[in-house]
TrEMBL record:
Keyword ATP-binding: yes
Protein name: Uncharacterized protein
Molecular function via GO: ATP binding; helicase activity; hydrolase activity
GO terms for biological process, alphabetical: mitochondrial RNA 3'-end processing
Domain spans labelled ATP-dependent RNA helicase SUV3 C-terminal: 109-140
Xref: InterPro entries: RNA-DNA_Helicase (IPR050699), SUV3_C (IPR022192), Suv3_C_1 (IPR041082)
Domain Suv3 C-terminal: 45-87
Keywords associated with the record: ATP-binding, Helicase, Hydrolase, Nucleotide-binding
Amino acid sequence: CFEQVELFAGQLPDITFSQLLEKFAESCVLDGAFFLCRHDHVKRVAHMLDRVPGLSLEDRYNFCFSPVNTRDPQAMSSLLRFALQYSKNLPVRIAMGVPKESAKNDEDLLNLETKHQVLSMYMWLSQHFSEGTFPYKETA
């Protein structure tokens, strides 16, 4: 699918990636049995990443399809931080504390769940970007 988005981007070079995805979705012609999967999720991430300079079209595409819970502000913040570090050619760090004990209440449990989601996202990103850019995948 990236190749199709890339070809489409060649026709609209002066718009943001989130605008590009919106126009791409509008122009898609799908059989009645098909639909664009996770489109709102991808648009939400793309809109957030519009603020990150220095990402290629393919980088933006990969970050947009990462497994992030877009309803979790902490997870979205982590994705933004990862993208900013990546855009500056810095090694992408996890920068997340390890819990010292098990969850004692619902809030602790939600916090642990978010940390797990962020680690899963980091692992996914490490598989989709060049080796060395996500150097802490073994730690994750």
